[in-house]
Please model this.
Amino acid sequence: MKKIGVAILGLGVVGGGTYKILTEKKEFFKRTQGVDVTVECALEKNIERAKALGISEDRIASNIEEVVSNPAVDVVVEVMGGVEPAKTFVLKALFSGKSVVTSNKELFAKHWPELEAAAKERNVGLFFEATCVGGVPIIRVLQESMQGNEIQSIKGIINGTTNYILTKMANEGSSYEEALKEAQKLGYAEFNPTADVEAFDATYKLSILSSLAFNTKINIENIYREGITGVKTEDIAHGKEMGYTLKLLAIGKNTEKGVEVRVHPTFIKNGDPLASVNDSFNAVHLYGDAVGDIMLYGRGAGSLPTGSAIVSDVIFAGKHDEYFYSCFNGDKGAKTKFVSDFKSKYYVRLIVKDAVGVLSDFTGVFAKNGISIEQVKQISAGNGESAEVVIITHKSKESAINKALEKIKSSDFVNAIGGCIRIED
Ligand code: HSE
Model:
């Protein structure tokens, strides 16, 4: 029976879950996969944490050299997070002839070509299923199951923390701050939540997913990013009444004009399958020209769900001698044409003066900028001083909306722009 020796770098939440699955299911893997997997060693500074998992002291490595020089190790699992020292450790493992399995989206999104070049040079595997959407097997679907398609679009809820926050704001009317506190209490959001709420995490994942989907390297700099910190509970509620649900949506489209990649708060129709993806769950919708619609749903984070993705990579690495390398190795995306002035429908909430002619004034600004209005709804009765109005536009260019809002901001008839959210339908 094929033996697979594993080393785990980092025994945090994901490393711990991986260790648990690999050790508890050892006999199951022998029976169902025909492989005998053993965790040979772990690199973890916190000895107590390692011992709590049942790892004896002689299997706790004190430095990376000990790991990469261990002949019993075939696969190195990197679950440390962050760029350094993870990058140095991964490169050392690859150059020592070990296959690497990683969950590190930031490292992968920023340094994929360099890591892949090292893997290719040493003819070892580089696996990254756990970098995107936790336990949902999206990477292997893109690499191994959709070859017959040119993928035209990818849309996903790929960050659980922000989905939890937005769901709470929508269902309970909580403010952003209240929902964030609750997410932190439950362990979904970090003490410093920036990576999630400012959509860096989703941008790393979209960079990886859209690169695979569109067969071209899409760097994070090519992706428009906007987080959820400015989202207001009242906009979620007004949107809901008008038939929309708010999600932090990662969108990739491959159009004749070029590739369009963006992450931002987005209204989608209440009946869209992605609208019912709630709490900390994730989902990705793909459209392939041959297969049509595909949707994958599940847990995007957590010890066992992310461990599940890593274990699948470990077993895949152990069972295959030929490895997948991307078709764009080394291509930094320079040749890809990107669409930055993309088109969306818009939800705009204005707090306007309650006076004669105000409606025609601001609709006039939209008209002057070539923006066609689909709906106008007055959401609070004028009290003689101010009134609140929501406008839904037809599809318009970003640049046109920005110009119109700039003009509206400086006009006498508008007190404030309450909210401005893109609509994808
Ligand atoms: N923090 C991420 C999320 C999970 O909330 O989805 C790891 O990428």
